[in-house]
């Protein structure tokens, strides 16, 4: 299927509520808005595909293209692995001008795969096409097929060249790739009635490990977390799970729906950010599993665990509350669902002034609205200048956002916390929300900000605001002592 | 009050000796030769430490007290040493630092010296001899440094009522590096003032390569400037231990002084810059305002790495105050503060509970902190505890360039923020594991006091 055809099918997503509301003609146009040259920000389709697939830990990820695609983007995310670190290694064919002019790309790609297999012997190789190799017509799929046969392991073509569209489209194309080439290719021999997949969970900074032991305590078996800390084989056997939970809905919803169609795996959307959302997610998983034939007492055990864990989390949040209560938050996130963050912040007594709904579905918006009770608080897109103004005017005590907007906050001398992919702290689950609130406490109460906001003691020309007087001159007075030593007589 | 328990054992000392501090100060005077009045070893150990720290030839001499002179009195040795130094090195100043040995014996050094300089005036000529009484059994580097500067002012500075509105006296603390002093000088000069910095190690210990062999110090505060020290518009003393010399100067010449406990941090640097603007009557130059803005940005970028960190600092009192105040400014907490000596009033102002102790105390108390801050001898504690060491003060013998690292004023604080943050980042090599994040681990005892998981950075 051509790239264009694949993208068209991706845009026809019945499970997507935004899509359902569209007319037939607008739906055909697809859901990615055309980018405005000179006013575009955000990643390309290649970026999106790599984000979804690269956390698969034991796979070699080979980027076929000139250097920039991989060379400028590798080792920039903090997904964690409990096993292989092969995923962190950067592999690229680094096409030269000569390679491109002479059409050496395919040959170079094949050799690159061979070298990887010889040196690292990975269970699979993912090969990512890029703009240039797509443009010059390298048949990545054919090379992968040939290499797969030759080297006796899956070599998976990931065809999401940057120009195909946005990062979000790349996420979807990555899901398609898994569906076409990976999921269902291996039959597991250890299926239990409580096997689940978590889709769209990246295990950033290992945060899913805050959640995993809780699920395991209930006897829930994680067949595959896609892609966080996943092994190739986990994903290849993911079709035998009894339930899917989808975490970052707009990215992998199609994958979840197709898995339901193909293998009858029911799915639901949930989130592990915030206490109530984590509890809801655990309940959701258990409910689906019981519907699929898991023992009915799972629900009761889940309730007991939720009660226990919530109590502990509240107990740990209590000392933070006085330090956070009444602090006003500007929530400017794309990836993390804003409503689940809103709930989490309210749990600590904070006030959410505005929240972004840029990447949210109508359902998300409704939930965010329910949490905020006022439509004024929602915004689709705030111009950096407007954000800066709000921060400088002191309308906000802290901004939570991704690193792209961090300097708006910092240059406005306002506390900021990274809640997106580049962050360094785990925020998932009950433990994670406590960690998030601790981090907010450190940021919002940092002594650096009052010090920075205090005006310099001089004006913009350097003249002192309070010229004062030079330090007083001490009166020069000596008295001769009997022994002839000169001593100061005034006692200041 | 700092906790100062009486103890019979010092494990891994934090202190360096008082005569070392005095000799260090004399090294910041032009053409000076420090002379330790004691046994050969007193000087040799100090010399080795200086050489390891500065990686320079250090001019320093000894009166080489022996058994006989220890019993019968050391005046002869002192005289012989002064005359020999005069002949061989021809210094402008000999800084005599007494040691515990001769102080325990208890001689009248001032009288001895007066006798020597008057009897041998021909031989000694225009070489000035200054006496700093600095027994090892009291104080540490800061006290020795302070004593030497005080003694120098008392001996050399002429009484005067003349005031030179263009000149500013700066009494620099012992923890100022060559880099700090250069920054300080440039800042003062930017206001059209001529700084007379005492001591000034920036010319003598800055790691330059002169084109001839010079047996004494080169660079440093000229003796003539010290003699005319009173002819200035004001005196700025940095660090509580410079109060004594500032007082001595005031007593002698009536020159008023402002004591700034530290120049590290935005507010502290603002205080000096405001003072300079007042004294000079000039606006703050654009270059300095730009440095301030750079520091503000460094604080913004840096504070992520400081927030919630627990720090253990072991240092001389004023340096301890400087570092603890710096960490407090940046949102980190000094949970362990060890001072080398008990007497400085600045210890009351340290934003932490101060214990007077040694590096053994540091090692005992610092478990679980994120960073140790001390001189190079803290490395043993660092190795055993597995906690990174940020080196400050003296001696730093296992890293290069100690004399050029800065911590004063806007640019120094900026550098300090980056250096500390980089040390913390480099130490965060623990990657998260399922075990380290498992919420069920040690649930019975720890769930309320558990530290946050280690952040991971690349």
What does this entry look like structurally?
The complex is a heterodimer of chains A (492) and B (458). Chain A has 22 helices and 15 strands. Chain A has 492 residues and is of the alpha/beta class. In chain A, the strands form 4 sheets. A 5-stranded parallel sheet of chain A has the order 11-10-9-12-13. Chain A has 3 domains: 3-22 and 42-180, Rossmann fold, CATH 3.40.50.1980; 195-316, Rossmann fold; 325-422, Nitrogenase molybdenum iron protein domain (Rossmann fold), CATH 3.40.50.1980. In chain A, 43% of the residues lie in helices and 13% in strands. In chain B, strand 12, helix 16 (379-385) and strand 13 (389-391) form a beta-alpha-beta unit. Chains A and B meet through helix 11, helix 15, helix 21, helix 22 and strand 15 of A and helix 11, helix 12, helix 13 and helix 18 of B. Chain A: Pathway: Cofactor biosynthesis; Fe-Mo cofactor biosynthesis. Chain A: Residues 44-441 form the Nitrogenase/oxidoreductase component domain. Chain A: One of its GO terms (molecular function) is nitrogenase activity.
What is the secondary structure topology, with strand pairs?
The complex is a heterodimer of chains A (492) and B (458).
Chain A: H1 3-11, H2 17-20, H3 24-28, H4 45-53, E1 60-64, H5 67-71, E2 91-92, H6 97-102, H7 105-120, E3 125-129, H8 131-135, H9 140-151, E4 155-158, H10 167-181, E5 195-201, H11 212-217, E6 221-227, H12 232-236, E7 243-246, H13 249-263, E8 267-269, H14 275-291, H15 297-317, H16 321-324, E9 328-332, H17 338-347, E10 351-356, H18 362-372, E11 378-379, H19 384-392, E12 398-401, H20 406-411, E13 416-418, H21 429-444, H22 448-453, E14 478-480, E15 486-488
Parallel strand pairs in A: 1-2, 1-3, 3-4, 5-6, 5-7, 7-8, 9-10, 9-12, 10-11, 12-13
Antiparallel strand pairs in A: 14-15
Helix pairs in contact in A: 4-10, 7-9, 10-13, 14-15, 15-21, 17-18
Chain B: H1 18-26, E1 32-37, H2 40-54, E2 61-62, H3 67-72, H4 75-89, E3 93-98, H5 100-105, H6 109-119, H7 121-124, E4 128-132, H8 141-156, E5 167-171, H9 178-189, E6 194-198, H10 223-227, E7 234-238, H11 243-253, E8 257-260, H12 266-280, H13 286-306, E9 310-315, H14 317-329, E10 333-339, E11 354-356, H15 359-365, E12 371-374, H16 379-385, E13 389-391, H17 409-427, H18 434-437, H19 443-446
Parallel strand pairs in B: 1-2, 1-3, 3-4, 5-6, 5-7, 7-8, 9-10, 9-12, 10-11, 12-13
Helix pairs in contact in B: 1-8, 8-11, 13-17, 15-16
GO molecular function (chain A): nitrogenase activity
Protein name (chain A): Nitrogenase iron-molybdenum cofactor biosynthesis protein NifE
Family (chain A): Belongs to the NifD/NifK/NifE/NifN family.
């Amino acid at each position: 299927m051509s790239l264009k055809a694949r993208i068209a099918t991706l845009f026809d997503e019945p499970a997507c509520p935004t899509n359902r509301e569209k007319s037939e003609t607008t739906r055909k146009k697809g859901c990615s808005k055309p980018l405005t040259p000179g006013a575009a920000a955000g990643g390309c389709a290649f970026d999106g595909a790599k984000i979804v697939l690269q956390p698969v830990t034991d796979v070699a990820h080979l980027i076929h293209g000139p250097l920039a695609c991989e060379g400028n983007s590798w080792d920039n995310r903090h997904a964690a692995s409990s096993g292989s670190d092969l995923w962190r290694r950067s592999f690229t064919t680094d096409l030269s001008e000569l390679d491109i002019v002479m059409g050496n790309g395919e040959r170079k790609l094949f050799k690159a795969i061979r070298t990887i297999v010889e040196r690292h012997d990975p269970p699979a190789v993912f090969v990512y096409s890029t703009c240039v190799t797509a443009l010059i017509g390298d048949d990545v799929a054919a090379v992968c097929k040939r290499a797969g046969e030759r080297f006796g392991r899956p070599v998976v073509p990931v065809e999401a060249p940057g120009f195909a569209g946005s990062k979000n489209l790349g996420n979807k194309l990555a899901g398609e790739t898994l569906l076409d080439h990976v999921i269902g290719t291996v039959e597991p021999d250890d299926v239990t009635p409580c096997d689940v997949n978590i889709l769209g969970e990246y295990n950033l900074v290992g945060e899913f490990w805050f959640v995993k032991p809780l699920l395991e305590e209930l006897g829930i078996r994680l067949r595959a977390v896609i892609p966080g800390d996943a092994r190739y084989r986990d994903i290849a056997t993911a079709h035998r799970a009894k339930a899917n939970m989808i975490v970052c809905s707009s990215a992998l919803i199609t994958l979840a729906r197709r898995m339901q169609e193909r293998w009858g795996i029911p799915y639901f959307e949930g989130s592990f950010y915030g206490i109530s959302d984590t509890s809801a997610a655990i309940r959701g998983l258990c409910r689906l599993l019981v519907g699929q034939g898991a023992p009915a007492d799972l629900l009761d055990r889940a309730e007991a665990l939720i009660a226990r864990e919530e109590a502990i989390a509240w107990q740990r949040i209590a000392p933070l509350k006085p330090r956070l209560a009444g602090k006003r938050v500007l929530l400017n996130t794309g990836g993390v669902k804003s409503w689940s963050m809103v709930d989490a912040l309210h749990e600590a007594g904070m006030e959410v002034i505005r929240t972004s709904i840029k990447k949210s579905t109508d359902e998300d918006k409704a939930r965010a609205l329910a949490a905020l009770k006022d439509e004024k608080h929602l915004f689709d897109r705030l111009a950096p200048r407007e954000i800066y103004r709000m921060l400088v005017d002191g309308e906000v005590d802290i901004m939570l956002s991704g690193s792209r907007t961090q300097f708006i906050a910092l240059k406005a001398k306002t506390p900021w916390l990274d809640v997106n992919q580049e962050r360094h702290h785990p925020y998932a689950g009950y433990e994670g929300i406590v960690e998030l609130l601790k981090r907010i406490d450190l940021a919002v109460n940092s002594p650096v900000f009052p010090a920075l906001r205090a005006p310099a003691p001089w004006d913009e020309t350097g003249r002192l605001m309070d010229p004062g007087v030079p330090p007083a001159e001490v009166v020069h007075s000596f008295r001769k002592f009997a022994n002839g030593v000169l001593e100061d007589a005034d006692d200041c | 009050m700092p906790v100062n328990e009486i103890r019979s054992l010092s494990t891994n000392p934090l202190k360096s000796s008082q005569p070392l501090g005095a000799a260090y100060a004399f090294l910041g005077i032009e053409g000076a030769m420090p002379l330790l009045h004691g046994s050969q070893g007193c000087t040799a150990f100090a010399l080795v430490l200086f050489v390891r720290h500065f990686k320079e030839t250090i001019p320093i001499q000894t009166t080489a007290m022996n058994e006989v002179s220890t019993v019968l009195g050391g005046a002869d040795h002192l005289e012989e040493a002064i005359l020999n130094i005069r002949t061989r090195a021809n210094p402008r100043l000999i800084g005599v630092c007494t040691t515990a040995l001769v102080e325990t014996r208890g001689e009248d050094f001032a009288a001895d010296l007066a006798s020597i300089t008057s009897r041998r005036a021909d031989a000694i000529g225009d070489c000035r001899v200054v006496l700093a009484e600095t027994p090892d059994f009291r104080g540490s580097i800061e006290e020795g440094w302070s004593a030497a500067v005080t003694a120098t002012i008392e001996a050399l500075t002429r009484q005067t009522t003349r005031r030179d509105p263009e000149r500013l006296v700066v009494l620099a603390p012992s923890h100022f590096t060559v880099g700090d002093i250069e920054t300080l000088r440039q800042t003062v000069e930017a206001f059209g003032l001529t700084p007379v910095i005492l001591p000034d190690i920036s010319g003598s210990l800055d790691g330059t390569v002169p084109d001839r062999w010079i047996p004494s110090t080169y660079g440093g505060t000229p003796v003539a400037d010290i003699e005319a020290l009173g002819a200035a518009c004001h005196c700025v003393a940095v660090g509580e231990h410079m109060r004594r010399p500032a007082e001595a100067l005031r007593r002698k010449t009536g020159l008023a002084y402002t004591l700034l406990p530290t120049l590290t941090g935005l507010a502290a640097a603002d205080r000096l810059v405001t003072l300079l603007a007042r004294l000079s009557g000039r606006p703050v130059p654009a270059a300095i305002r730009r440095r301030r803005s750079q520091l503000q940005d460094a604080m913004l970028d840096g504070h992520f790495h400081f927030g919630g960190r627990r720090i253990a600092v072991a240092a001389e009192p004023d340096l301890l105050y400087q570092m603890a105040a710096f960490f407090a400014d940046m949102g980190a907490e000094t949970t362990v503060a060890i001072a080398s000596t008990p007497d400085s009033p600045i210890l009351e102002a340290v934003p932490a509970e101060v214990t007077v102790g040694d590096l053994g105390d540091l090692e005992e108390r610092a478990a679980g902190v994120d960073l140790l801050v001390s001189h190079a001898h803290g490395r043993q504690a660092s190795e055993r505890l597995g906690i990174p060491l940020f080196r400050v003060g003296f001696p730093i013998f296992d890293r290069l360039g100690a004399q050029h690292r800065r911590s004063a004023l806007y640019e120094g604080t900026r550098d300090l923020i980056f250096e500390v943050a980089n040390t913390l980042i480099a130490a965060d090599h623990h990657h998260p594991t399922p075990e380290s994040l498992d919420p069920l681990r040690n649930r019975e005892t720890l769930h309320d006091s558990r530290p946050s998981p280690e952040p991971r950075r690349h």
